[in-house]
Amino acid sequence: MSFEELKERYSKFLSRRDKFRNPISFWDGDLAPPDLIGLEVGLPNENLFPIKAIDLHLVDKPFDDKEAFVASMDRYDNPEGLPIARSFQYSETRGMFPLINFCKKVIGTVNKPAYDEWDVLLSNGSSDSMFKIFETFCDESTTVLMEEFTFSPVISNVQNTGATCVPIKMELTTDPAKQGIDIAYLTHLLENWTTIPQYSHLNKPKMIYTIATGQNPTGMTLSMEKRRQIYALAQKHDLLILEDDPYGYLRFSPYDPVHPLKNLYTDESHSLTVEDYLQKMLVKSFMTLDTDGRVIRLETFSKLFAPGLRLAYIAANKFIIERLLNFTEVTTRAPSGASQAIVYTTIMALGSKETAADEMDAMFLGWIKWVMKLASAYTHRRNVTFKALYETEAYKKNFFTVLEPSAGMFIDIKVNWPTPPTGDKKELMSQLNKIIIKNGVKVVLGHKMAVDQDFSSDSADFLRLTVAYAKDEDQLTEACHRIGKGFVELFNM
Amino acid sequence: MSFEELKERYSKFLSRRDKFRNPISFWDGDLAPPDLIGLEVGLPNENLFPIKAIDLHLVDKPFDDKEAFVASMDRYDNPEGLPIARSFQYSETRGMFPLINFCKKVIGTVNKPAYDEWDVLLSNGSSDSMFKIFETFCDESTTVLMEEFTFSPVISNVQNTGATCVPIKMELTTDPAKQGIDIAYLTHLLENWTTIPQYSHLNKPKMIYTIATGQNPTGMTLSMEKRRQIYALAQKHDLLILEDDPYGYLRFSPYDPVHPLKNLYTDESHSLTVEDYLQKMLVKSFMTLDTDGRVIRLETFSKLFAPGLRLAYIAANKFIIERLLNFTEVTTRAPSGASQAIVYTTIMALGSKETAADEMDAMFLGWIKWVMKLASAYTHRRNVTFKALYETEAYKKNFFTVLEPSAGMFIDIKVNWPTPPTGDKKELMSQLNKIIIKNGVKVVLGHKMAVDQDFSSDSADFLRLTVAYAKDEDQLTEACHRIGKGFVELFNM
């Protein structure tokens, strides 16, 4: 596919507002002599910045407070990297090239798209990515499909354009082959759109938003087979797939109830290699199936580095990236150069410890090893949490089921009602929540993350908890015990 | 004015799209016991970040390569400041409170609004500020007035909403009382809007965008008297005033042709105090006249710290800030915490060297002293540039006039045509530009920064050059001499 073919195929997806975007440039492309003095651009000289160098004190692994090494940025040093004269200056709207190239390396190695004309664009975090994508594709007349439970702020991102969100039924099950988007439901929805009473007044959807791995809030991961089926439906009904993947790298090693603290990442008898992690542990992106260029993938440094950086990236076909870049020119322009430099300098430092064919390979290797250490830390916290939940009286009495996730930050606890509730489930869930808060734990109720609370009223009887934020193992364990007590209190009332 | 009164007064200014913005939150406000364990928020623990501390190596003044001191951020230290556990975490969308408070201190001390119910909001640079403001106030039916020459990317920010930009005639003169927006023209425009043929199909303007001090590209600064007149017109015709002020602090000391390198900032016999600088050198913002809450002021750290931070702030009445914050929730959310922490930590370090009533006063003092050092560096570069321009043969032959600016990064050179050109001025300017490029200098042509090139065809015969970016004095001097030669070549052809 050439850029022109992509343009022809995907222009019809653009929002009405996309055409208003005509960034103005006042730079000429005139040829100039080599000793040209540039007095045209409104850039401050880098010697007007109060900072001349920055040292980053890095740790070797999560929860290790020892300083492992120092990565430094000077004003001009290391022109291959992002020295301060560059990163603290105005810079390329799409992101600085060294970091862009690294992001391309990650996509191209871990989730190589099934076509060639793809590109990446940095953004100010995935919230910013989504805002820009929905603004570029959605109008008041647009319908966007999304999992019935989702990261609810996305709903407001869609609604900000005037568009409508429609939920897709999910299978909330521990069976890895079945969990996530209900394919039969989705097929029926798309095949019969115009005759379904509650949706017939809406345009046929043009986009599916999905958190395909370690879904928020459910922790569900779509199997490759389900991904293939969804991609085929997207082809048949000409949908874009917006794949949000903040948690995909945080893949847990399998849980072993007999040895609850077993962790493949740290198991010395196994020694999980980078290759094993990439090929066997991770689930492949929709991009790897994407022969048409219809997948937009969202990656972020928020969970793998730090959220406060507000740094993320978008991978998509070149035409889509061009439209998003065009929008970025009239909105935020480049993301923080300080954030970009901190990430890039850290990854260069991680790479400097690796042996590889070239510097980029070394950086990739160093970065993935860091990410594996994170996945290991999350696996350990998952282990601690499961162990603590499974040792409660409430679990032994079958008051709840843990929807065991295979990746991510979230664990959902599904209520097993002793007798099917006759009253309002939402009311009972709210009561359970009050008891749990009284016992000293704060969680999120399923229905709070439903696209449509009525649509999901039957399946919203779960609690979402995160293993990511707690201070330590003891706090996680104590919280699980308190949750267990809450269930006992509710069901003994 | 209460928030409700502001809401009543300013709701009618909101764009149609403002009402689509309903950020979704899933946090309850439930009361909880003091030992509550929070498993609800999807935040990674700060020990999952690879960085535990950052050192900033700071200089004492611009163009000084010596390290003056080191300012450090640790993971938890200094909870009054912005430790990494906080700044690298998800944080308040409006900006972290310590930095917000500092920004309020700056506005409240330097340009105290003439009413009480104002507030500030951080953004990802002034381009982002403007995008959010125009999206909140402009629709396809909106008309925005702006100086006929302006920072041209703003035009695309306005047009992105579908709105229309209309130019205001400027007086391009070295007379400080007269320069900038032509008040008679503006008055006539507003009084006769519906009967002016070229504008009668447009709605009456609801906003003026102005770079009131050290205007880009003209370098003009509006006198206080002109500001009062414009504010009175805004009151009469119910306009918002969007005051963009990236350069206002970069105020030059007066130029002395007899002692061209004289610089009040460094003149030991004068010793300019912070008080002198704030009260006598700076021109007061429209906010100081604003009894109604109709002024929106844009400040930025781009020119005073570094552009790559992408960090700026907006000051306006509380209702407007609330609407902008609401939009920010569905777009970028918080600006880079790394950028916020770098700025705040630096300012804390600057403040630690000052003696003052409290820490905030000390920080303000330390910051303003840094800003004065910048203004001094810009004054020196202005001096070097004027001196070099005035010693050219072209100047001595009266081929050009320097539109002497009193602040900012830009100097405009107005062409003095020996005989009024009969042909197309734009064509002649393009010819001059080609000659100057051939001689080895790149500048910007006036018409490239015109809102409407036809409207400004008579007055666009100037070149804009910046003193900010050149490597050193020698390069600035050489560039000015080359420009002079260009004029001689053009007029001797």
Notable characteristics:
14 helices; pyridoxal phosphate binding (chains A, B); Aspartate Aminotransferase, domain 1; four-stranded antiparallel beta sheet; 2 domains; homodimer; seven-stranded mixed beta sheet; Aspartate Aminotransferase, domain 2; alpha/beta; 493 residues; PyrdxlP-dep_Trfase_major (chains A, B); aromatic-amino-acid transaminase activity (chains A, B)
Describe the protein's architecture and organization.
The structure is a homodimer of 493-residue chains. In chain A, helix 6 packs parallel to helix 7. Chain A has helices at residues 3-10, 84-87, 97-110, 126-137, 153-159, 183-191, 224-236, 274-281, 318-329, 337-351, 359-390, 393-396, 425-439, 473-491, and strands at residues 37-38, 51-59, 67-74, 118-123, 143-147, 164-168, 170-171, 180-181, 207-210, 240-244, 295-300, 312-317, 400-403, 410-415, 441-442, 444-445, 462-466. Chain A contains 14 helices and 17 strands. Chain A has 493 residues and is an alpha/beta fold. A seven-stranded mixed sheet of chain A has the order 4-12-11-10-9-5-6, sandwiched between helices. In chain A, strands 13-14-17-16 form a four-stranded antiparallel sheet, with helices on one face. The mean pLDDT of chain A is 95. Chain A folds into two domains: 78-363, Aspartate Aminotransferase, domain 2 (3-Layer(aba) Sandwich); 376-491, Alpha-Beta Complex (Aspartate Aminotransferase, domain 1), CATH 3.90.1150.10. Helices cover 35% and strands 16% of the residues of chain A. Chains A and B meet through strand 1, strand 2, helix 4, helix 5 and helix 10 of A and strand 1, strand 2, helix 4, helix 5 and helix 10 of B.
